Amino acid sequence: MGRSNRKVNQDTTISDLPNHVACDILSRLPLDSIFTCKPVCKIWHNLILEPYFAKLHLSRSPLSLVFFRHGNSNRSPSYFEILQLRDPPDLHQHNATMKFRTEIKFPRRHVEMVASCNGSILLLNYVSQYKNLVIIMCNPLKAHHLVLPEPPKLALRTHVYAGVGFVHSPSTDKYKVSVFTCTRTPNILYCDTFTIGIDDEWRSIGATGTPPTEFASSFVFLNGALHWIGIENAPVICYFNVEKEKFGSFPLPSHFAAKGCTCLGVVDNWLYIHDDYRFSEWKFWVMKDYGDIGSWTLEWVIEGPITSEFARPAKLLKILNDGTLLMILFKLTTVWSVPSFNSRKKITKTIASYNLQTRVLSILKTTENICKRPVDHSFADAPSFFSPMDALK
Questions:
Q1: What is the dihedral of CA 174, 151, 369, 365, to 10 degrees?
Q2: 12 Cβ partners below 8 Å, 6+ apart?
Q3: Per its UniProt entry, which superkingdom is the organism in (predicted)?
Q4: At 56, which helix (H) or strand (E)?
Q5: Is 211 within 8 Å of 247 (Cβ atoms)?
Q6: Which residue, of 60, 188, 200, 294, has the fewest CB within 10 Å?
Q7: Are 145 and 102 in contact (CB under 8 A)?
Q8: Which residues, other chains included, contact 83 with Cβ-Cβ below 8 Å and sequence gap of 6+?
Q9: Cα–Cα distance measured from residue 316 to residue 327, given in angstroms and rounded to the nearest whole number
Q10: What is residue 271's predicted lDDT score, i.e. its pLDDT?
């Protein structure tokens, strides 16, 4: 009996594990290890492609920073770069950065990454001044992409592009893209929505009439709604409820009322704002109880050498278990080329952790991007092996 058991154990390999056990193990690995395991055997390759694995992995996937690099030729192809952010952060994490080439053929020169949701990304391809827009949805991990129909309002000369949002609707498990346009005379904001896998063409939500037509921040998603700062007589936080497809707004704290340089973000399911015009100190205000304007609380204050070294305040990514802030710091400088004396903007982006008690800044990664117009080609998101394009197949 003992010899028989010994023989069975010797012939049993990790490939003989039940599928649900193998999925559980694989879903806990970092991205680079998963892609190393994928070609090992056909069983693992197929498991990683299963919807069950995709959902399990997404539930455990740590927050990551997704970069997009737009190439100019076959020698310099476009690609995504993904950096997984863990708690506590790994100072050698740059070794785990993964690059994903994209075979998307962009018909026009200018490309921006404008939104990200559950690992799927929206790219905006346009001629100039956001004219003749091509909206492309893609998933770097699956190498999938989908070109959306052109929004009808953008074909009108009377409408000006204002922004785009990309969200997931939990009740329907569908993904929606919303494009916002506005007219100047009179000042009216419009919204067109496209649901992936449902709509064949864009649906017009109509003239909203309520939100201001001047956008003063990028879009952030929280509690089933897109949020941004709009300016009319005074800045307010506007939102678009994805489920109800309705707009609303609530005021900023009173001391922000006269300012138009306020940044909006989401960190750990909190809506936060901070002044973009203070360089001696950075103050971050958090809405502790969503929708309650009386719950705005001054949560973090950063001052000292860090505020003078970096020209722009931080973009918060995560609050670590010990209260340390994981964030992105920006520095914008001008690069002059000789002998033509043409100038270009260089963005230095630093991913760092900052301990509020010790005031110690730990650099995790620094990247540089030279462009004619300063654009932040990065988003904090959880990479996913599920793609909305799977449903279309």
A1: -10
A2: none
A3: Eukaryota
A4: helix 51-60
A5: yes
A6: 200
A7: yes
A8: 64, 65, 67, 93, 94, 96, 97, 351, 365
A9: 4
A10: 92
At a CB cut-off of 8 Å and minimum separation 6, what does 295 contact? 287, 288, 289
pLDDT per residue over 63-120, tens digit each?
888 888 877 666 677 888 888 877 676 655 444 567 777 777 787 778 888 888 888 9
Q: What is the pLDDT of residue 370?
A: 47
Tokens 């009319």, residue located: 232
DSSP 255: G
Q: What is the pLDDT of residue 194?
A: 92
Task: Select from 330, 325, 285, 327 the least CA-distant residue to 312.
Answer: 330
DSSP character string of 199-211: -SS-EEEEE--SS
Q: φ and ψ at 91, to 5 degrees?
A: -65, -15
State pLDDT tens for residues 203-244: 988 655 555 666 667 788 888 888 888 876 777 888 888 888
Structure tokens at 177: 């893209």
Q: pLDDT higher for 50 or 391?
A: 50
Q: Which residue matches tokens 């904090």?
A: 380
C-alpha distances in Å from residue 123, one per residue of 22, 114, 377: 34, 6, 10
Instruction: Calculate mean pLDDT across residues 297-304.
Output: 84
Please name every residue paired with 285 in a beta bridge, in sequence order, or none if there are none: 273, 298
Residues 226, 77: Cα–Cα separation, whole Å? 32
- Model pLDDT, residue 153: 77
Closest-CA residue to 243 (of 230, 226, 229): 226
Which candidate, 113, 201, 213, places its Cα nearest to that of 161? 213
By the 8 A CB rule, do 102 and 79 touch? Answer: yes
Residue with tokens 């449903």: 391
